[in-house]
Structures are given as C-alpha cells and as structure tokens.
Amino acid sequence: MSGPRGSVALRYAVRSLFRNGRRTILSVAGVAVGCTVALVDIGTARGKVNMFLRSIGEGGVGHLRVVREGWLESRKAELRVAEWRSVLGRLRADPAVAVATPRTRVQGMLAMGTRLTGAEVVGVDPATEPKAYRYVRQMSAGRYLQPSDRRALVLGRTLANRLRVEPGDQVVVSAADAGGMVRTDMFEVVGIVDLGGRLDAAICQVPLADAEWLSGIPGAGEIAVLLGDAGAVARVRASIAVPKGDAVVSWSQISPQSAGAVKVNEVTQVIISAILLAVVLLGVASAQLTAILERRREFAVLAALGAGRWTMVRLVLGEAVALGTASFVATLALALPLVWYLATTGITVMAAGGMSVGDIAIVDTVFRSDFGRWFFVDAALLAYAATVLASIYPALFAARFQPAEALRVAG
Q1: Segment 279-305 mean pLDDT
Q2: In whole angstroms, how far apart are CA 353 and each of 58, 140, 350, 358, 376?
Q3: What is the structure's pLDDT at 300?
C-alpha cells in the first residue's frame, strides 16, 4: 500500500492495537523484556571480548607483531627483524598504531649465591615497554627500567623469591651467545613486579642493548604492536609494509588458545540471543494468532468487500510494525539505563591482584559491558524481528480466510 491507502492501512493497524490495550501492553512488555535481556547479554559478551583482547594485547602478546618469517613455527629467539629501526619508525608514525615497541628474547640463567633459576630474559625499550606491557606499569618494589640503565634487571616476584633478592641486589645473568660462548655479567635488580600468581615467572626484563650483548646478535627479535582499535587487526595488518623475509602476525596466530576462547564466547552469545528471541517470537506469535481468530468476522467482511490476500497480509504486518515500534521504544526505555550503567560504572568482579586464564593475566578488577552504536541497531533489529517475524504466520493464516466460512464461524 502506498499513498492514501498506505496511510489508511497504518491508521487501521494502530487502531487495531488499541482495541485490546491489555494484550498490546503485555505483548510490548514481553518483547521489551526479552530484547533487554538479549541486549544485556550482547553487551556483556562484547565487554568480555574487549577485556580479554585488552589483556592479550597489553599482556605481552600485542595485537600484531612483526617477526622474522618462520618464527611462528619455530619460535626461535635468535631470529631478528630486518631493518627493524625503519620498520619501528613507520609503525610509530601510523595513526592506527597506539604503541610499537621492540623486544629481544634470550634464554638465560640467573644466579644469586648458590641459588639458580632459568628464565627468558627479554630486552625491551624502557620508554615504550610499559605502554605495551601493562604488568610493569606499577612496581611492587623498586622502579622500572630507565633509558639510561645498563646491566639493570626487572623481575617478577616469583623469580625474585626463588633467588631471594630485592631491589638493589646484584644477580649474575648468563646466556649462550650465537657462537656458543657463555656471556656472564652482574645485573642490578632495580624493580620487582607482583602479579600474585605464576605469571610472575615470565617477567625478566633488561634494556634492549643488554639483551643484544647477551645473545651476541644485534637487533630486535620482534616488534610488538598495540592498536587504538583492537577490532582493526585485519585491516591494519594488511597495510603494514615490512622488508622481504619479515612477517606480520596477529594475536590469534600467536595465541590460538586465546582466539578459541574468544570464538567460544561469541558463539555462546549468539546462541543465547537466538534462544531469547525464539521465546519472544513464540509469545508474540501466540498473541497475534489469538487476535486473528477473534477477528474472523472482521477479516471476512474485508474479504467480501474485495480485499485481496496480500491486502490482509499487509494489514497484519502493518500491525506488527506498529507493535515493533512500540516495543523498540519500550526496549530503549528499559535497556538503555541498564546497559549504560554496566558500560560506565561496571561491576567489581575481583579483588586487586587479578587472576590468570591460561597464559593471560586478567588484572581488571571492574568488569564493564560494551556500549555503542550497535546498541541502537541491535535494539531495533530485535524489536522488529520479534514482532514482524512472529506475525508472518498469523498474517498468512488471515489471508486464507474464506468470507462465507469465516462469517458462518463468527456468527
């Protein structure tokens, strides 16, 4: 219907909703509650993914990483990025890149007196590493590395306890260089990080120049990249130009188990939302079908006056659109304050110190849902889908009415 006929159909649909105000109110309330639960679930799922991606990116993995080809398969610490300084400069000039920092890893041995422990010694840029690796932003004792430091060392509490050292103590650091010779020197412990778990054992950082000396190989083994938008990984990765022999890998390639956890969370959210929508659909369809049966005489008269089947379908779907509009407004009124509160204020989920999931430390003590344009889009889609889809069968049912039969049953 278009023009005047369309306006008549719209007025007819709106008037039909007000004939049984109680049923309409219950239908709108049911849709609004179901859509609100779905929106809270979607926002929560997106918030969990955001928190997990933030923990992955800032937990040492990075959103992207520039490495030597073959590193992903071998994970060899002796591989070096070609022309890493120029690559690093281009990355830092990219507006999509929040942080780019070089690292070099060396398998070493730490000793204090008769106490020994193995550790992966990571050479870092003290100026940018805390921006990319959140766990070293606050020291439980001492301070972090400074650009002017040489033979300085930051340890996790687990390693410090094994060696029984505190800031100011001297630790012997040994590593085999590229030629197989053992290089040894004294390093001063300047700071200690306490994550409250076994992940402390992974923190053993020195200035990049010291790691180069220990390995005997100049250059950076990797460049970790954090993006301003974690969802832009694929786009930014495709835009990064690196020399031949180097590669850009994503966090999901570096940590497949983390990618699997994110995928499971996303699939679970879709399933829950689908179940909620199906429940709402059944409720609305039942109410609409009941309304159609109660109005058999009305539809019979319309058919006798020449209204075709598609006219009947459009009338019922017009009512569904009007009901969907009312449900959309009710959903916004109910869901918007709740999702906004969860996104801005959040919920305290753990005490300071955090927890770990696999090799990822979750240190956010407050969980926040996600909120954005998706909320309004999804609210509209859910509200109209719940009403329009639920009205398709009742509309087709109404279109099959035969005037004589309908009038006889109604009478």
Answers
A1: 68
A2: 16, 11, 8, 16, 36
A3: 64
